[in-house]
Amino acid sequence: MNWSGASSRPAFRGRARRMLRRRNRRRAERPALKMPAIPWRVIGVAAAVLVLALGGYQASAWLLNRPIVTLQLSGQFQRVTAIQVEALVEPYARAGFLDVDLEGIRRTLTDLPWVANVEVRRRFPGTLEVAVREEKPIACWGERGLLNAAGELFLPDAGHVPAELPRLKGPPGTEAQVTQRYFAVQEQLEHRGMSAASVTLDARGAWAFQTSNGLQVRLGANSIDERIARFFQVLDRTLTHMAGEVDYVDMRYPNGFAIGWKSPAAARTTTDEERRPHA
Q1: Which of 134, 154, 180 is the last residue of a domain?
Q2: What is the residue range of 99's domain?
Q3: For the whole model, what pTM was predicted?
């Protein structure tokens, strides 16, 4: 039994070695898993370029963001002084050429009562250009307010109201509406060598205007455009040579008008029909 057991061990070891060789051969035949190569050189070059670009940008920004040494102002400066503008801009100018807040300057200067528009620009190497356009009043609103051409009440309580300005009046919030009506009437009057001294809209919605020679025109609250057109027809056909004698023209009649004369001697009425005026 000892002999037969000893002879079986070499056979077993032989089979084991053959199986191990086959297993190793199969492993060798499998394709090896390759890790991707890291392009360290490319990464290094890119990083160097990025560092150089960032450094160049910071250096350029440092060179460009130099102090503002010149403040150049332009504008007529009739109601706003250059000293006022310079005092308001100076705190912003301390920030430097690139960091200066242009929009902040615009907002600050536009808040001044007489300033309509502001333009702010940089000019290399260290100049800040500020152009100021002042409001131009076209009419007086109420007692002391001032309106611009857009019908905006830019100064509700003016210290001085030019006497030559026309007087516009209406309920709060109707400034633009009354201004538009004024321009429409003024255009027609200018063609006839006249001008509008006042335009009024009352709380009931009734319109009236007065010319520069004192002629009052009452329009009422309805069909305003039609009544204005009819008034100018009457003015051209009937009143051109006697406008100085007329106190008022009442256009509130449905199919005609009434005239009020300044002197009793000239008292007469021109109407298509005698009725009480309609609104």
Answers
A1: 134
A2: 70-134
A3: 0.71
